[in-house]
Amino acid sequence: MKMDVFSPSVLDALPKATIKEILGKFVVVFPIGFFIVLALFYIIAQLEFQRATILKAKEDVGNIELLQFVIRHDLEALASDLLLLANNESFESYFEDSSEKNLASLAERLKNFTRDKKIYRQVRYLNLKGQEVVRINMEGLRPEMVPRD
Asked: ∠15-19-21 over CA atoms, to 5°?
């Protein structure tokens, strides 16, 4: 005859002191074991959070370094372009004599520069007073000089 462990006859067969002892031990051991398991899960969760935070910080540092590289590269290219234009004969001629002929030569140089570089949507030359002397707008693939007012 097979007996179910939790059937009333099995529980009735155990002495009452044994059930009280088992329940007494369970009431003491279960909460302690529960809190130990809970503490382990908390420690594991904290370690995982710290690991994820460190990984995110490393990723952020990598992204910042990449952005620094891109910005530095772009600024170096811009500085190179400015030096190229500043040392150009058309600018020097215009600085010495701001005649219409020299202005037309300067405008043509800026137009060619804009066409060759293909990265500037607009190129302007401003005088020392901040007034626009020449403006070249890139219209599609063609640079166009904007007439002066």
From this structure: 110
- What is the tens place of the pLDDT at every residue in 103-134? 999 999 999 999 999 899 999 999 889 999 99
Phi-psi region of 148 (alpha: psi -120 to 50; beta: other; left: phi over 0): beta
Interacting residues of 132 by C-beta distance below 8 A, sequence separation 6+: 124, 125, 126, 148
Helix (H) or strand (E) holding 136: strand 132-139
Pair 136, 148: CB distance under 8 Å: no
What is the value of pTM for the model shown? 0.57
Tokens describing residue 41: 């899960």
Q: What is the number of residues in the chain?
A: 149
- For domain 89-145, the CATH architecture is 2-Layer Sandwich (3.30)
Q: How far apart are CA 78 and CA 72, in angstroms?
A: 10
